[in-house]
Amino acid sequence: MLYSVVILSYNSERTLKTCLESLLRALTQYSKLSEVFIVENGSVDNSKEIIASFNEKYPLMIKPILFDENTGTTVSRNTALRQVSGKYVLVLDSDAYIEKDALDTLTETLDSSSDIGMVCPQLRYGDGRYQISTDEFPTLVKKLKRFLSLDSMQKSVDTDNLTECDVDYAISACWLLSREALDKAGYFDENIFYSPEDVDYCISMWKSGFRIRYVPSAMAIHDAQELSRGFKLSFFHFSHLAGLFYLFQKHRYFFTPRRLRNRLRKPIYEFGNAL
Question: 200-217, pLDDT tens digit by residue?
Fold first, then answer.
């Protein structure tokens, strides 16, 4: 297998069809076969029917994994990751759309150095707005600032001068990993239900000796649902907050990630202009 893709679906009928169409349009242009694991996480909309239709059309590529209830983002993804056989592993949200040129650019960057374990594209919202998708390791203060000021932060980015750089972490909407990096970093921490599983996994990537590279010349769409954003409190807000405190306790930092970086022997985040 060339690429093993892991897509998590939860009530994603609005975006899932577009996600799979763009992905399969890319994958079918390669001479080697790829596989697409779609983890259906207890949706109550038409997501299952969409998956079934693609499975019927692409039986050699589409590999559904069906859960009766929402198992969160870690158990579900791990179920698929334990079955992957590709040279490259693409973790993709069901509301993210990637084309072949972006996938080629990410792959070339991943292959350019043996110590790069993960590469991530520039993300744009469905309406074309720039989306902040990388950051320093979080603190409670930085998370609060991001929660309150994300729109203004995004508008302030000079998108004409984005440069490739290493980053502390990237959101898990679109990651391309080498198989070696996956084997060494392992799987998602299932003590986290929803978030910030992406931050925790990126820390595992750094601990395993791999860099995380932001590649803005590769662009993907992330038509985000943003389940934990906004002022109307929901289960996802509380789950995110619980996961954040778990992250701080696990990695032994709270107000500043300086000690974490020292343990990782990692330099200060190369802001460049990824943020």
Answer: 999 999 999 999 999 999
